[in-house]
Automatic annotation (TrEMBL):
Natural source organism: Photobacterium halotolerans
A molecular function (GO) term: methyltransferase activity
InterPro entries per record: SAM-dep_methyl-trfase, SAM-dependent_MTases_sf
Keyword S-adenosyl-L-methionine: yes
Residues annotated as domain S-adenosylmethionine-dependent methyltransferase: 25-309
Protein name as catalogued: Methyltransferase
Amino acid sequence: MDASALPLFCQHLLSQLASPPHEVRRLFHGRGRRWAGLEQLTADWLDGQVQISLFKEQDADFLAALTAALHDLVQTDIWQRSGAVSLLVQHRDRVGSPMEVIWGELQTWQQVTENGLKFQLDLGQKQNNGLFLDMRYGRRWVMDQAKGSKVLNLFAYTCGFSVAAIAGGAAHVVNLDMAKAALGRGRDNHRLNGHDLNQVSFLGHDIFKTWGKLKKHGPYDLIIIDPPSFQKGSFALTTDYAKILRRLPDMLAADGKVLACVNSPAVSPQFLIDGMADEAPELKFIERLDNPPEFEDLDHDSALKAMVFAR
């Protein structure tokens, strides 16, 4: 990256903080490659905590320039009036993804609001905090679609889609993820929103060893697939996604829908369209959901793909 671009980064942050978001929101998305010299830098508003994330290790000169620029930023009137309580830098490319406190005090457990729903974030402990902000429109779509539905949420993580579905009136949601600790956070997210946990199931299993149990809970009116691009020993996007797609017809209700997602910049939307045509041809592509405007990408096909299919 280029230290000479940092004044532009700070100027953009200040313009965003002049009217701070009312909910959790990305403030700066260098990963969209629209800001030359800042491609590995993002900034998020976490309901008062501002988190800067560095996705690749930078040289000492850039890091010193970034720290100096941020120290200047917190002295501005706009920052002081913004309601921010901390300024953090997460070094995602370092072992343990350590969090550096530039100003204020780190609040490890941060509650945020999105689409009127509450979520608990875990800051400074892991690479990911518990909520992927680029999927905001996807969760809103699920909320709008869910009334009276039985929903299957694959790769559920902390159950953001499940929270949205129950808030939208879903009859029942089945969450599947190998990470039982993440599912435990999902329970907490449901409790934060006053949801009846009798309407929610949590299965901490390997998806490829659980088809029988999943089918027994079905058929589903809505199936959500939002996998990692790669998870060592359990999932590789380009080889394993097809194994999921071919199972969909047996688990989906007659008029059911599928929200299939990919967040790898190396994969285009056509990957899912072709994969579905090959593995489950009775499911037709309906639409690609918009991404939030703050996640604009130089190449639209490199950004998050959230694709809707139906019989």
